[in-house]
# Entry
Amino acid sequence: MMLLALALGYVIGSIPFALLLPRRAAGVDVRRLGSGNPGAANVLRSAGTRLGVSVMALDVAKGVSAVLLAGRFGSQAPAGPADLAVSAAAGVASIVGHVFPVWLRFRGGKGVATTCGVFAILAPAATVVAGVAFVVTTWITRYVSLGSLVASLALGPVAYWTNAAPSAVVAAFIAGFLILHRHRENLGRLMAGTERRLGQGVR
# Structure
């Protein structure tokens, strides 16, 4: 059951909507535009708001779907710790699939929207707090990347403080590490003062 949930989560997460939608709608490859990252934020900057929001919604839906479908594998009602662990593992697998999709030679997006979808189900209270942290940080600094980092790194501790299931807490810390890892270049640009701010177009 666990292996099936992991495989299902990975496959769902690895669907590259940020590549597929702009290519179909506008005939562009976002890997050749902006930051080159096949994620919702780059689509938003490079291909327009409508496509960017659509990709973001679909990436969130990937995380939600992975957790909910894995939950159907459970055998207990209400769900016990083992079932929750399977759902959490499937959620993490969907984030891994988004970040390291085999179809794109393991060079995917940064996992923020998919993480939001996963923890909207696993730890909704922590997701709300992390979402507020994202909005406030991004609003003040105008750096989407910094808002994403603050939100993802806050997710694990807040999940713990809000008494989320232990498997969800562990999953939140893993997700935070993955997002931090994928934002290494952003961190470098933030420190160098060359990171693009919200509203700045493609250069």
Summary: Residues 2-192 form one domain.
